């Protein structure tokens, strides 16, 4: 496995070096054009998204240059609208993870600065945030194409980061904004736990006939219900997140179907109509189910693991069935499994799930499947100037973008798949949806009333435990350094 791990590390170094050469300081590299572009308000997204990957892989020189850029050049005063969701998971998540790994206070200060600029998006009648914000002015709105609605995966994927920031700064406003969203969602939560992906920021109401999916626009909401529970060390304060997640998993059973060629998949639903389509994005579900086995009854744990293994097999075959051996963006299952949208932008979800399954089962096939996918990336997407996605997984035609998540997630999960389980152990760390690991930190504040506005009471015990955590963090950093080198 050491040889495979080193190959992945070499891929990261190639991707990083090309970004550094052609697009330094910009959000993303365009490898074919040999230039960069700003897709995320010009915040140097590739740099921030890569910090923890560089750190974990022991690429010290590259990490130090990235850290220095963040300290000296990162400027959040951008007079442009950008996604609240993407900024949270990539920038805030990347900064928090870099802080937890390195202990450098500068990262926490920067994390607080960007979050303060995001907060106006939560100033809505319902507390459901708008999807877009101008980082300079605070002007916020939701996109016209959504009819002014906010998106489930956007509004439900800030809780980890905002709660973690409160835990590390002792400033409650971040957690309060994020958890007010869960309070509102709890009021409209369906009995099957499956929310449609459009929610009004004005009224907080859902479109009951709207689309339900574990793919694009729905996915990470369900992921964060579980992971906020894990992040909070599964204490009483976060029990309601686990309960909501289990309710959603029961509802998800109604979407599990099998194609005529034997592949288990997750369908989508619009009103009462089933849609036989599954996004590659939904291939995060096997990993989520594995993570959810801890804390489940033995019967439930077996159910979760069995479904995870079946879905992972489907996701692997999404890759194997194309000419390039890379998966399309989504698949139709009207009869047999067939590529729908045919591009591949080097997404991480399938190898992410393999990492969890390998750590849970020890089954070598998950490492072999991940190696197959990595080799396809090397063969199909690698250029002398970086890595780029495919416009079509059957023709092999290339696009011109190296997504930041290829460095933040895809290569990190592959590296961890081929590493001992002691590298970022899952009983100490939990990954945000951009694969940024955050240290599990017991929630020691008072439980919030789910029907009311949150009233956060800081107790003497909370303060004491927080101090103990900080001492614990100081003691652990040396161990992290030893493991990753």
TrEMBL record:
Binding sites annotated in the UniProt record for Ca(2+): 433
GO term, biological process aspect, one: glycoprotein metabolic process
Swiss-Prot/TrEMBL cofactor(s): Ca(2+)
UniProt key word Transmembrane: yes
This protein's UniProt keywords: Calcium, Disulfide bond, Glycoprotein, Glycosidase, Golgi apparatus, Hydrolase, Membrane, Metal-binding, Signal-anchor, Transmembrane, Transmembrane helix
Pfam families listed in its UniProt record: Glyco_hydro_47 (PF01532)
Pathway annotation: Protein modification; protein glycosylation
Statement: the UniProt record of this protein carries the keyword Membrane: yes
Catalytic activity: N(4)-(alpha-D-Man-(1->2)-alpha-D-Man-(1->2)-alpha-D-Man-(1->3)-[alpha-D-Man-(1->3)-[alpha-D-Man-(1->2)-alpha-D-Man-(1->6)]-alpha-D-Man-(1->6)]-beta-D-Man-(1->4)-beta-D-GlcNAc-(1->4)-beta-D-GlcNAc)-L-asparaginyl-[protein] (N-glucan mannose isomer 8A1,2,3B1,3) + 3 H2O = N(4)-(alpha-D-Man-(1->3)-[alpha-D-Man-(1->3)-[alpha-D-Man-(1->6)]-alpha-D-Man-(1->6)]-beta-D-Man-(1->4)-beta-D-GlcNAc-(1->4)-beta-D-GlcNAc)-L-asparaginyl-[protein] (N-glucan mannose isomer 5A1,2) + 3 beta-D-mannose; N(4)-(alpha-D-Man-(1->2)-alpha-D-Man-(1->2)-alpha-D-Man-(1->3)-[alpha-D-Man-(1->2)-alpha-D-Man-(1->3)-[alpha-D-Man-(1->2)-alpha-D-Man-(1->6)]-alpha-D-Man-(1->6)]-beta-D-Man-(1->4)-beta-D-GlcNAc-(1->4)-beta-D-GlcNAc)-L-asparaginyl-[protein] (N-glucan mannose isomer 9A1,2,3B1,2,3) + 4 H2O = N(4)-(alpha-D-Man-(1->3)-[alpha-D-Man-(1->3)-[alpha-D-Man-(1->6)]-alpha-D-Man-(1->6)]-beta-D-Man-(1->4)-beta-D-GlcNAc-(1->4)-beta-D-GlcNAc)-L-asparaginyl-[protein] (N-glucan mannose isomer 5A1,2) + 4 beta-D-mannose
Origin superkingdom: Eukaryota
Recorded topology in the membrane: Single-pass type II membrane protein
Subcellular location: Golgi apparatus membrane
Similarity comment text for this entry: Belongs to the glycosyl hydrolase 47 family.
Protein name: alpha-1,2-Mannosidase
């Amino acid at each position: 496995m050491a040889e495979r791990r080193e190959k992945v590390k070499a891929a990261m170094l190639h991707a990083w070096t090309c970004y550094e050469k052609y697009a330094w300081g910009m959000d993303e590299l365009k490898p074919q054009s040999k230039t960069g572009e700003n897709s995320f308000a010009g915040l140097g997204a590739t740099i921030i998204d890569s910090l923890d990957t560089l750190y974990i892989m022991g690429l010290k020189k590259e990490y130090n240059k990235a850290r220095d850029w963040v300290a000296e050049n990162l400027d959040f005063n951008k007079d442009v609208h950008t996604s609240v969701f993407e900024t949270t998971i990539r920038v805030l998540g990347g900064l928090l993870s870099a802080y937890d790994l390195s202990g450098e206070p500068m990262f926490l200060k920067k994390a607080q600065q960007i979050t303060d600029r995001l907060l106006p998006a939560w100033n809505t009648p319902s507390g459901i945030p708008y999807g877009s914000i101008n980082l300079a002015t605070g002007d916020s709105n939701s996109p016209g194409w959504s009819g002014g609605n906010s998106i489930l995966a956007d509004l439900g994927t800030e809780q980890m980061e905002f709660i973690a920031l409160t835990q590390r700064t002792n400033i409650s406003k971040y957690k309060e904004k994020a958890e007010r969203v869960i309070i509102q969602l709890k009021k409209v939560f369906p009995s099957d736990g499956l929310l449609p992906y459009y929610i009004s920021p004005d009224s907080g109401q859902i479109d009951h006939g709207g689309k339900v999916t574990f793919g694009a626009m729905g996915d990470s909401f369900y992921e964060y219900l579980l992971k906020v529970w894990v992040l909070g060390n599964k204490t009483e304060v976060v029990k309601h997140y686990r309960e909501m997640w289990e309710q959603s998993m029961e509802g998800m059973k109604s979407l599990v179907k099998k194609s005529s060629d034997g592949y288990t998949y997750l369908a989508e639903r619009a009103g009462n109509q089933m849609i036989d389509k599954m996004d590659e994005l939904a291939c995060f579900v096997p990993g989520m189910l594995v993570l959810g086995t801890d804390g489940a009854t033995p019967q439930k744990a077996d159910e979760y693991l069995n479904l995870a293994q079946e879905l992972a097999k489907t996701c692997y075959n999404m890759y194997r069935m194309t000419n390039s051996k890379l998966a399309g963006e989504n698949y139709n299952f009207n009869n047999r499994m067939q590529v729908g949208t045919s591009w591949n932008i080097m997404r991480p979800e399938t190898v992410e799930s393999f990492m969890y399954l390998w750590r849970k089962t020890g089954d070598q096939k998950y490492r072999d499947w991940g190696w197959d996918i990595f080799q396809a990336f090397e063969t199909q997407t690698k250029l002398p100037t970086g890595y780029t996605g495919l416009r079509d997984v059957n023709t092999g035609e290339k696009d011109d973008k190296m997504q930041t998540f290829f460095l933040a997630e895809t290569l990190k999960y592959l590296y961890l798949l081929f590493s001992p389980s002691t590298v970022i152990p899952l009983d100490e760390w939990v990954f945000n949806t951009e694969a940024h690991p955050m240290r599990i930190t017991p929630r020691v504040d008072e439980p919030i009333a789910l029907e009311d506005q949150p009233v956060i009471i800081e107790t003497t015990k909370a303060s004491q435990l927080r101090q103990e955590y900080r001492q614990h963090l100081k003691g652990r950093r040396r161990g992290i350094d030893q493991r990753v080198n």
